[in-house]
Amino acid sequence: MTIAASKPSQPTPVRTTSTVAASPASPSTGTPWRAYVPLWLASAPAFMLFATLVFVPLAMTLVLTFYRFDPSSGPIAAFQFGNYVEVVGSPYYQTIFARTFAIAFVTTVACVAIGAPEAYVLSRMRDPWRSLFLLAILAPLLVSVVVRAFGWSMLLNTNGLVNQAFALFGLGPFKLEYTSFAIVIALVHVMLPFMVIPVWTALQRLDPQTEQAALSLMATPWVTLYRIVLPQVMPGILSGSLMVFGLSASAFAIPGLLGGRRLKMAATAVYDQFLGSLDWPLGATIALLLLAANLAVMLTYYRVLERRYARSMG
Predict the structure, then answer these.
(1) Of 97, 146, 210, 299, which is most buried, counting CB atoms within 10 Å of its CB?
(2) Would you kindly state where each structural domain of the chain is located, as residue ranges?
(3) What is the DSSP annotation of 163-210?
């Protein structure tokens, strides 16, 4: 009689389901806002310093523009738009603003025409010549703007070296000092490094093989420069021209020293109203309108060139 051996029964595993509470930092729910609290607390001192140094003075200047000026008692708290009406509707201030932006535009064009080729030549140099020329480009930044302005004043005055050079050919003397020409020349000298450095930085990211490939496909050097190099350095030209235009439009020392008392720009007009006439509300209005106009021109220029650059890059 055969007895079948039965297998010992194995214990059935018990499945335990544990309920895990969803963590607030799980991917399904996203990072909680409490995770960013340390970052906010860490950046709070820097933000407070930035707000104190930038936003608070701008807010005080904006409030001051609505004050009324009394020659006998000074600024009087009021809410009126008389200062804006006076600046916008006055042909005198219209001429000042037109001259300011015209000089800034000419300075920017001159810096692009000089700085972009200079940066291209600088990028093709080898050490130690590149280091020497880069030092020569950055050297004006080591000298005070006032010192440079006085140097140009000595060169461009009636008895300066420029008129002495003209006298050797029987020409002159010419009135070069206290003119728009003198302001543009000095501003180009001061602002040129702000154009060369961004363009040179953009050229450092340019692959030299792209130029060699274009030349190997029988493209002329000018076509290669226009179709290959220029579109890739446009971001550098854009950033440099924005810096040059903004700094030139708000320049004070050079227009004040080389423009004289009659050739006014917006920054010197603000100085005259604050320290000459003591009309602080009107000076604050000129400064705020200069800031707004400068931002409007720069943002428009940025949008136009950005779209054109995007189309050229496909």
Answers:
(1) 97
(2) 94-262
(3) HHHHHTTT------TTSHHHHHHHHHHHHHHHHHHHHHHHHHTS-HHH
Residue 224 to residue 231: CA distance in whole angstroms:
10
**What is residue 206's predicted lDDT score, i.e. its pLDDT?**
75
Lowest mean pLDDT among 9-13, 98-102, 157-161, 196-200: 9-13
Q: What is the spatial distance between Cα 124 and Cα 195, in angstroms, rounded to a whole number? A: 17
Percent of the chain with pLDDT over 70: 87
- DSSP class per residue in 49-114: HHIIIIIHHHHHHHHHTT-EEETTTEEE-----HHHHHHHH-HHHHHHHHHHHHHHHHHHHHHHHH
Burial degree of 294 (CB within 10 A; 0-12, 13-18, 19+): buried
Sign of the Cα torsion 288, 289, 292, 297 reads negative
Task: Check pLDDT > 80 for residue 292.
Answer: yes
State the average pLDDT over residues 159-180: 85
Query: Residue 31 — very low, low, confident or very high, per pLDDT cuts 50/70/90?
Result: low
Q: In the CATH scheme, what architecture does the domain 94-262 have? A: Orthogonal Bundle (1.10)
Measured between alpha carbons, how far is 187 from 5 in angstroms, rounded to an integer? 106
